[in-house]
Design goal:
By secondary structure, the protein is α+β, with helices and mostly antiparallel strands. It has a single domain, classed as Spore Coat Polysaccharide Biosynthesis Protein SpsA, Chain A (Alpha-Beta Complex), CATH 3.90.550. About 30% of the residues lie in helices and about 20% in strands. It contains six helices and six strands; from the N terminus they run αβαββββαααβα. Strands 1, 2, 3, 4, 5 and 6 form a six-stranded mixed β-sheet that branches. The longest helix is centred in the last third of the chain and has 13 residues, at about 165-175. The protein starts with 8 loop residues before the first helix and ends with a helix. InterPro entries: Cytidylyl_trans, KdsB, Nucleotide-diphossugar_trans. It comes from Arachis hypogaea. Pfam families: CTP_transf_3. Keywords: Nucleotidyltransferase, Transferase. This is 3-deoxy-manno-octulosonate cytidylyltransferase.
Length: about 180
């Protein structure tokens, strides 16, 4: 177990790595609120980080459902043309001037899985919290605000995060349907 002083999952991973006292090139963090992440997604983010030496972090996104567009519990992501993260937000991004969800736009939903280069993971807790990180309460923003690169892969995944208590029943039902319980 990690200490209560850890402010987020990335800091918990850093502390766990230190406690293990072993040498790893990459650490994977699968957030507990994403119980149905497929093994292929885990492999994909690790391979993406290994293939991108200028990135210190990798993660995955999938298509955002229109009904989730305005849900602050569903973190959205925008990426550049080379597959690097530009920004993460609890709000809809990009947000067009009409103020409405564009049903034709391919909005991206961030999945609760990350892989880290261990050299970066060791210094992450020493980086000061950043304004955007604190405002959005998203640890990925501290990485971006400090000028580090984050590789993002797009996957075809029916996202079923557990963000509110009502989501637990949905996940349990899906797990029974898939014989995973």
């Amino acid at each position: 177990m990690t200490s209560e002083s850890c402010r987020n999952g990335t800091e918990r991973c850093s502390e766990a790595l230190e406690k293990l006292g072993k040498n790893y090139d990459i650490v994977v963090n699968i957030q507990g609120d994403e119980p149905l992440i497929e093994p292929e997604i885990i492999d994909g983010i690790v391979k993406a980080l290994q293939a991108t030496p200028d990135a210190v972090f990798s993660t995955a996104v999938t298509s955002l459902k229109p009904e989730d567009a305005l849900d602050p519990n569903r973190v959205k992501c925008v990426v550049d043309n080379r597959g690097y993260a530009i920004y993460f937000s609890r709000g809809l991004i990009p947000f067009n001037k009409s103020g409405k969800v564009n049903q034709q736009f391919p909005y991206l939903l961030h999945l609760g899985i990350q892989s880290y280069d261990t050299k970066f993971l060791k210094i992450y807790p020493d980086l000061q919290p950043t304004p955007l990180q604190l405002e959005e309460d998203l640890e990925q923003l501290k990485v971006l605000e400090n000028g580090y690169k984050m590789k993002v892969i797009k996957v075809n995944h029916e996202a079923h995060g557990v963000d509110i208590p009502e989501d637990v029943q949905k996940i349990e039902s899906l797990m029974r349907e898939r014989n995973l319980s």
